[in-house]
């Protein structure tokens, strides 16, 4: 294999499968590296066995946190992305957005090749012409060259910076959600410019001042893993989580206590906390004086919370060691957001959390902040930019229109985009040289200090990106390669290198023939650090592992900067005089809008509202009552800077003075799925001007009723449990005592076991139970077989819905679209039900209970006997099977399923959901269901069977945890555990014995294979 | 004997009866053709709808999961139910020697066969993969696949096919002497066809003896089906665990409802038909009075069953049942719930009054209410129970029937009406031989004869 790498002719083909032979080496044996086209095995490469998946390590590029991934390929196509268990950022887990990166790879709207604007429209040109044109324009522009890139940090961004530097310009690293307030506050309080890591797993008490750390704040996977570690109930212990913010976001709904506070008052509250904590610790040093002003009473006035509550929570916070306070969420990014972050920094410092749970030295990737963008825009205005290269960034959409980026962009004579699809920025560009997707190219990322996370091509590019495919003469054995064109499968890195060669001069230093060589050269310098040895061995090991993951270096915790003598709180200003503060927040899945062209993300219901496929406007029940608006009534929000319309959604977890709206919708370009879908919340924002960051929470709006309706495609039915005990929960005290759900209930009701039934009733119940046990024995004809089961810990589940997208990806579940979701026809085998507790007239605070609901694989399944053709049947290993080929579609099983987890193919979804090339993602191990048949969760039977086959080949029993269902594999908080319940040593068997365990709808005697562990409430009463 | 009306003596001769009945088979008027074209038109609408469903999938219909059965199964049960009145009248009343059935039984029996033919289409229309409907049948096949006899849907297949076979046989068999009578009056190719259909009937004593014996046995065979078929249909629901379906009361409740709806349909068909075919002197107020009494009886049983459903739901203490039954009259589908209760339980109570029972206009209006009410009964039981069962999260997608639902419903009426109208023109709609048996003289054999 190393011969191939040495051979420059072959290198051209290294973006095809064999190229990643290093990755394949460790994961599935050695590669010959020889493959021509991927699909027909005219020459079969050794690591490609039809039917056997090959896994490659890589890095997710969906956000700057750069999680490590394993990409599963089958027959030369990436079909599934899973977290890399060794990767320090995500440890094997992956969020919905990461899972959906496959739909960016196979997006039907991906640009096929370079395009040049002529006559107003972008027209295809050849790669050679595109590169020549780029070189010519850069040469012509002299020093007036600039670039915009995302916050991703790695070898490519080094090359880009160096290349643009050679041209005399500079790169502006722009990220819409750049966490600039945090950096400002860190400079101010700790005197450091970096973004720290946060150890949620260690924290005993977590307070978030509007930071949505579970989905959009810094490194969500790492945060969520840590949060589940500390906040998931284990061994009688769990941390407590308190969330302050005007809106109960996903993070807010996972809090034991969510408190709606006046928008913009977080700093007062954080400082009051610091004051109380400092008081408890006996003074706060130099800051003591300035903190004294922030009494709980003062904070109470600002936030609208009772002072007693503030004192209680602050004391709890002070008592817990270590604790963690976080701030700087996008949804609470108002004009004084830096003050909030500074206040929270002070709070962490006072509570002694810095170095404990706030870990400096982690050095998360950062963007340059809005100020740099403003400077660039000024330069564009002044005609100082002749050529602008926009890479992995869509500022025309992600900046508020009022920032005027589009107008400035138009002034640039020559704009180049590397976007994979036609987005809003590309629409204004003159030259489009599409990059390769992260799974098709070489690169690396540096998500944390010392961590080098590699990307490698796991497959040939979906679209032939450049020139012709090499010709081969097939002799039946090994292909004889003829001269290949010089330009095959190039990423933007290769484009830059080739354009550099054409330019010469200052670009002469870019001697690497391909970007892969450039990358390897960069890594040469890394090898000695890693203990020396041959570079090839090091390189191959790194590729197999996914990068270099050293232990996190311990850095001394910075103290509060001596220069910091006072901290301040000022009320942020809001534009306009509307009655409501407008609170746009990043959509959990669309993020800054980049997810809007992926059907998986559009159909995965928003974790809070459960709305799919369109945008909405959240109002509080009081606001709705006052305006007399109902769900689905279209209203218009008017700020001094613009207006948006959308259907109303009534959210009980919303401050009465606030209306909220997700960011990420309202694209005017960006492909068929995104374009024209919903409204862009950023249209209401004013120009940031000279501010260092974009203030999202910065306008007031008034509401106009339009007297029109637009149905909201939500998957939520009745969001109340109606006393049915679906999502059980018990107080922390009861859980810590080891009570069962029932005991906890009886204890709370003041009833003692046995009292609630008469002797006759008890006898009858016992007799019935005994009968059931006897009958089960009769039916248990497969004693030697495993009995697959699952446990779902509701104390850990955050409702993030990563499992949902994982299930779509693994099981070829079609997306059905807005109209069909409106009719309740979504096919999601796994759904996260979100029931409300409290709120309404109860007087209790609103709380959410998340229940992942999937086929329960009932031992006594109601769906099985009613099927007239045995399509629904029970397998010997405890699965509730569904034979698609046998199903005639009577749908009786669906009617008789009390859990409502059977889904019917009303139309030919299999033909409409996967326009080319999205169909290339389909998992060949799973049937694509035709119209007219029922489908449902199979507990990933294809994974079970594969594991069984492998175990048999190796003549060993299956090891517990050797494989998992897709949902369990992806679950960032490890709430889902899958295994053989008959094996008493398995994790699932032990979890099923947990006192918190219960079955949903147990009274129907379905005997589900899924055991839920009740949520544990750590609220005010605990 | 009260064949035509109490204290009514038939003054007509055998020849008169033959003449009057056969007159119904002569060239019909414009109204008949209009009705027939209407029926065929409706049928074509249904056919086109079905083709679209076959091509695209069931999605065009208004299914909103968890409501996986809706208008089609509603209409299926509706048509199966319709059939039952016919068998009740032709077979059970025959065995009970209730001679007032004579004038109406042929029409009701034909209605039974066509209603079951209509109903039989629905299991095929409503399944997801219509082209493999035969997998529901236990036919020998290379794959050794056998249907699941535990499934109520299998029972259904047998119940419906048995019912269709027996009621068709019963109808055709009963027609033999009448077809022979028509044959005797017919000319040309008609004579040939009726001749074939009359199976060589000569009206000999031996033939009559065999005929009446066989008719009795067939009636005995058909009788249990009145109870069994709709009981089996009810078990499609009762043997599930869906609240609102899972009730032990279902079998008798459904049978009573079936007869109720069937008589409703008989009234709807006969009242215009007797006028159109000028059979007023044979099908009289007396018949309608009796039919109305039967309606009243079954209506009262339904009233009782409805009340009992609510009582059991309350008494069970089962929250799922209670929610379902609370939502029937007060939930989002309240209008359907009230349509069912009003049309079936309340409207039928009007029939306590003889004046109403003998007022054909009133009866006709009431019969329409019965048809509507019974359709809604099934709609409520099927669709609204499914809409609110165990998981509240799955609720609140209100069933919203579409053109595809209405198209198939209309088509089913067209299909039924088409056959019924063609039958009424082709075969004696009033049983000639049974009427003739009522004529006192001449006796076939002194002191003998059967049931005269």
Report strand % of chain B. under 5%
Rg of chain B, alpha carbons: 23 Å
Tell me about the largest β-sheet of chain B.
Answer: none
Q: Regarding CATH, which class of chain B?
A: Mainly Alpha
Distance N terminus to C terminus of chain A? 62 Å
Structure in words:
The complex is a heterodimer of chains A (1022) and B (452). Chain A is an alpha/beta fold. Chain A has five domains: 2-106 and 439-490 and 525-548, 2-Layer Sandwich (Phosphorylase Kinase, domain 1); 115-177 and 368-432, Rossmann fold (3-Layer(aba) Sandwich); 180-364, 3-Layer(aba) Sandwich (Dimethylsulfoxide Reductase, domain 2); 580-709, Barwin-like endoglucanases, CATH 2.40.40.20; 729-1017, Alpha-Beta Plaits (2-Layer Sandwich), CATH 3.30.70. Helix content of chain A is 28%, strand content 18%. Chain A has 34 helices and 39 strands. In chain A, the strands form twelve sheets. In chain A, strands 5-4-16-15-14-6-7 form a seven-stranded mixed beta sheet, with helices on both faces. Chain A starts with a helix and ends in a 5-residue tail after the last strand. Chain B is globular. Chain B has 15 helices and no strands. Chain B has one domain (14-438): Formate dehydrogenase/DMSO reductase domain (Formate dehydrogenase/DMSO reductase fold), CATH 1.20.1630.10. The longest helix of chain B has 34 residues, at 152-185. With 452 residues, chain B is mostly helical. Chains A and B meet through strand 30, helix 30 and strand 34 of A and helix 5 and helix 10 of B.
């Amino acid at each position: 294999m190393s011969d191939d790498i040495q051979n420059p002719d072959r290198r051209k083909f290294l973006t095809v499968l064999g190229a990643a032979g290093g990755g394949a080496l460790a994961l599935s044996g050695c590669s010959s590296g020889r493959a021509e086209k991927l699909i027909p095995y005219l020459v079969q490469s050794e690591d490609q066995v039809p039917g056997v998946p090959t896994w490659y390590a890589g890095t997710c590029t969906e956000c700057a946190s750069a999680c490590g991934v394993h990409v599963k390929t089958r027959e030369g196509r990436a079909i599934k992305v899973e977290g890399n268990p060794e990767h320090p950022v995500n440890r094997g887990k992956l969020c919905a957005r990461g899972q959906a990166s496959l739909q960016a790879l196979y997006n039907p709207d991906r640009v096929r090749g370079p395009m040049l604007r002529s006559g107003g429209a972008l027209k295809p040109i050849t790669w050679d012409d595109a590169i020549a044109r780029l070189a010519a324009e850069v040469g012509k522009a002299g020093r007036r060259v600039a670039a915009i890139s995302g916050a991703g940090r790695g070898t490519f961004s080094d090359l880009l910076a160096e290349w643009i530097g050679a041209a005399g310009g500079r790169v502006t690293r722009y990220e819409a959600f750049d966490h600039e307030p945090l950096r400002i506050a860190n400079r101010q309080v700790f005197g450091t410019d970096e973004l720290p890591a946060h150890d949620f797993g260690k924290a005993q008490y977590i307070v978030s001042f509007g930071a949505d750390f579970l989905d959009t704040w810094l490194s969500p996977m790492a945060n969520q893993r840590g949060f589940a570690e500390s906040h998931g109930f284990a061994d009688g212990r769990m941390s407590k989580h308190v969330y302050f913010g005007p809106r109960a976001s996903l993070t807010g709904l996972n809090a034991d206590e969510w408190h709606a506070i006046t928008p913009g008052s977080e700093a007062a509250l954080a400082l009051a906390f610091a004051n109380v904590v400092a008081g408890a610790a006996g003074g706060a040093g130099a800051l003591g004086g300035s903190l004294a002003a922030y009494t709980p009473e003062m904070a109470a006035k600002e936030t609208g919370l009772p002072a007693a509550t503030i004192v209680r929570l602050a004391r709890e916070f002070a008592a817990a060691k270590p604790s963690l306070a976080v701030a700087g969420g996008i949804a609470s990014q108002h004009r004084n957001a830096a003050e909030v972050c500074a206040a929270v920094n002070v709070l962490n410092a006072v509570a002694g959390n810095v170095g404990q749970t706030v870990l400096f030295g982690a050095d998360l990737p950062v963007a340059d902040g809005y100020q740099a963008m403003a400077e660039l825009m000024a330069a564009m205005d002044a005609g100082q930019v002749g050529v602008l290269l926009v890479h992995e960034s869509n500022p025309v959409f992600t900046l508020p229109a009022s920032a005027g980026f589009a107008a400035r962009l138009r002034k640039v004579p020559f704009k180049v985009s590397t976007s994979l699809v036609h987005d809003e920025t590309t629409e204004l560009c003159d030259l489009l040289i599409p990059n390769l997707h992260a799974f098709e190219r070489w690169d690396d990322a540096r998500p944390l200090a010392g961590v080098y996370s590699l990307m490698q091509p796991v497959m040939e590019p979906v679209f032939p990106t450049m020139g012709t495919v090499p010709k081969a003469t097939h002799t039946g054995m090994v292909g004889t390669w003829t001269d290949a064109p010089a330009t095959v499968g190039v990423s933007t890195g290769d484009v830059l290198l080739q354009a550099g060669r054409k330019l010469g001069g200052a670009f002469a230093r870019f001697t690497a023939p391909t970007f892969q060589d450039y990358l390897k050269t960069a890594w040469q310098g890394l090898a000695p650090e890693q203990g020396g040895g041959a570079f090839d061995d090091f390189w191959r090991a790194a590729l197999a592992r996914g990068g270099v993951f050293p232990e996190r270096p311990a850095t001394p915790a910075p103290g509060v900067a001596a220069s910091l003598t006072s901290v301040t709180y000022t009320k942020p200003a809001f534009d306009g005089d509307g009655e409501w503060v407008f609170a746009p927040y990043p959509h959990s899945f669309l993020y800054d809008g980049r997810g809007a062209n992926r059907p998986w993300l559009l159909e995965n219901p928003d974790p809070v509202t459960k709305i799919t496929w369109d945008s909405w406007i959240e109002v509080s029940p009081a606001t709705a009552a006052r305006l007399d608006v109902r769900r689905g009534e279209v209203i218009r929000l008017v700020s001094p800077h613009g207006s948006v319309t959308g259907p109303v959604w009534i959210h009980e977890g919303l401050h009465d003075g606030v209306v909220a709206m997700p960011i990420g919708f309202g694209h005017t370009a960006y492909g068929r799925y995104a374009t024209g879908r919903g409204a862009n919340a950023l249209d209401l924002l004013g120009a940031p001007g000279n501010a260092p960051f974009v203030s999202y929470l910065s306008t007031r709006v008034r509401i106009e009723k339009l007297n029109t309706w637009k149905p909201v495609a939500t998957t939520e039915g009745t969001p109340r449990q109606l006393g049915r005990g679906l999502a059980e929960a018990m107080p922390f005290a009861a859980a810590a005592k080891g009570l069962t759900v029932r005991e906890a209930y009886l204890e709370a009701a003041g009833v003692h076991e046995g009292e609630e039934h008469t002797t006759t009733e008890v006898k009858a119940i016992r007799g019935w139970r005994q009968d059931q046990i006897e009958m089960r024995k009769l039916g248990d004809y497969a004693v030697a077989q495993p009995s697959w089961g699952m446990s779902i810990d509701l104390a850990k589940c955050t409702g993030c819905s990563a499992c949902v997208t994982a299930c779509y990806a693994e099981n070829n579940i079609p997306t059905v679209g807005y109209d069909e979701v409106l009719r309740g026809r979504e096919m999601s085998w796994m759904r996260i039900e979100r029931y409300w507790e409290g709120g309404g007239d109860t007087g209790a605070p609103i709380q959410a209970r998340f229940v992942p609901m999937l086929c329960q694989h009932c031992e006594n399944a109601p769906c099985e006997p009613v099927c007239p053709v045995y399509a629904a049947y029970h397998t010997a290993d405890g699965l509730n099977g569904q034979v698609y080929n046998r199903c005639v579609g009577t749908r009786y099983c669906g009617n008789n399923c009390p859990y409502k987890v059977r889904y019917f193919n009303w139309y030919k979804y299999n033909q409409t959901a996967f326009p080319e090339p999205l169909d290339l993602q389909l998992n060949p191990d799973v049937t694509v269901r035709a119209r007219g048949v029922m489908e449902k969760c199979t507990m990933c039977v294809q994974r079970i069977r594969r594991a069984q086959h492998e175990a048999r080949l190796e003549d060993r029993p299956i090891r517990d945890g050797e494989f998992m269902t897709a949902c369990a594999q992806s679950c960032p908080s490890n709430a889902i555990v899958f295994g053989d319940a008959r094996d008493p040593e398995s994790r699932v068997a032990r979890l099923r014995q947990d006192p918190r365990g219960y079955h949903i709808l147990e009274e129907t005697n379905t005997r589900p294979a899924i055991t839920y562990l009740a949520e544990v409430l750590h609220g005010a009463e605990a | 004997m009260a064949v035509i009306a109490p204290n009514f003596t038939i003054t007509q001769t055998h020849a008169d009866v033959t003449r009057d009945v056969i007159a119904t088979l002569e060239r019909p008027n414009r109204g008949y053709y209009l009705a027939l074209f209407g029926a065929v038109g409706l049928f074509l609408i249904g056919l086109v709808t079905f083709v679209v469903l076959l091509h695209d999938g069931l999605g065009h219909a208004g299914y909103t999961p968890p409501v996986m059965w809706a208008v089609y199964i509603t209409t299926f049960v509706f048509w199966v139910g319709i059939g039952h009145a016919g068998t009740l009248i032709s077979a059970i009343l025959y065995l009970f020697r209730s001679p007032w059935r004579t004038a109406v039984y042929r029409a009701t029996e034909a209605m039974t066969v066509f209603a079951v033919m209509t109903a039989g289409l629905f299991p095929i229309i409503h399944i997801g993969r219509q082209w493999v409907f035969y997998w529901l049948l236990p036919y020998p096949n290379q794959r050794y696949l056998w249907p699941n006899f535990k499934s109520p849907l299998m029972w259904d297949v047998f119940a419906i096919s048995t019912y269709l076979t027996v009621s068709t046989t019963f109808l055709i068999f009963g027609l033999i002497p009448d077809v022979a009578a028509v044959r005797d009056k017919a000319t040309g190719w008609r004579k040939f066809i009726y001749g074939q259909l009359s199976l060589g009937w000569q009206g000999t004593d031996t033939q009559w003896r065999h005929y009446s014996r066989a008719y009795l046995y067939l009636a005995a065979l058909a009788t249990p089906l009145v109870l069994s078929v709709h009981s089996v249909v009810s078990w499609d629901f009762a043997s599930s665990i869906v609240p609102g379906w899972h009730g032990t009361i279902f079998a008798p409740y459904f049978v009573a409802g079936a007869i109720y709806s069937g008589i409703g349909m008989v009234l709807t068909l006969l009242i215009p038909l007797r006028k159109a075919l000028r059979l007023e002197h044979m099908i009289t107020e007396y018949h309608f009075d009796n039919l109305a009494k039967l309606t009243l009886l079954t209506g009262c049983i339904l009233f009782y069953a409805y009340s009992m459903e609510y009582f059991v739901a309350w008494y069970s203490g089962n929250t799922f049942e209670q929610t379902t039954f609370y939502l029937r009259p007060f939930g989002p589908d309240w209008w359907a719930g009230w349509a069912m209760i009003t049309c079936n339980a309340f409207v039928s109570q009007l029939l306590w009054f003889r004046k109403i029972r003998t007022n054909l206009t009133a009866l006709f209006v009431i019969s329409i209410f019965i048809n509507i009410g019974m359709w809604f009964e099934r709609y409520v039981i099927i669709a609204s129970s499914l809409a609110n069962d165990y998981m509240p999260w799955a609720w609140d997608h209100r069933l919203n029937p579409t053109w595809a639902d209405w198209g198939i419903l209309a088509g089913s009426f067209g299909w039924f009406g088409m056959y019924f109208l063609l039958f009424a023109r082709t075969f004696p709609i009033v049983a000639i031989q049974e009427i003739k048996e009522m004529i006192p003289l001449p006796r076939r054999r002194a002191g003998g004869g059967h049931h005269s």
